[in-house]
Amino acid sequence: MKFKAQDKQNQRIENITVLHLVVGVDIAQEVHVASAVSFRGIALGTPLEFGNHREGFREGFNQFERWIQDLLSTYKLS
How far from chain centre, in Å, is Cα 11? Predict the structure, then answer.
């Protein structure tokens, strides 16, 4: 039986629990912006802006990773 794209998306959404952190990233040429929400769509923390510059590429993504780890710890999520 083939699944429609919507069915697959619904299955993924149903797998999100109270312990999940949902992160969305708006990707741009210069600066990316990330925001996080709870399983119910409630905003958590403040959005993060991080660069996509060749010289600071690693630094920007390390900042992104630290931001996620801080949110997981602050809100006791896994």
Answer: 19
What is the C-alpha to C-alpha distance for residues 37 and 48, in angstroms, rounded to an integer? 13
The residues spanned by each domain of the chain are: 17-74
pLDDT in tens, 4-14: 778 888 888 88
What is the rounded CA–CA span in Å between residue 13 and residue 10?
5
- How far apart (Å, rounded) are the C-alpha atoms in residues 47 and 70? 13
Beta bridge partners of 33: 26, 49
Residues 58-70: tens digit of each pLDDT = 788 889 999 999 9
Distance from CA of residue 22 to its chain's centroid? Answer: 5
Q: What is the Cβ-side half-sphere exposure of residue 65, based on CA atoms within 13 angstroms?
A: 6
Both tokens assigned to 12: 């993924």
